[in-house]
Amino acid sequence: MPLKLSLKPKEAVVVNGAVLRNGDRRGTILLQNQARVLRQKDVLEPEATESPEEHLYFAVMQMYLTGETEGQLYDQTVTAIAAVLNTTDSADEREQLIKISTACAAGETYQALSLCRKLLKAAEAGNG
Question: How many Cβ atoms are within 10 Å of 59's Cβ, its own excluded?
Answer without folding.
Answer: 24
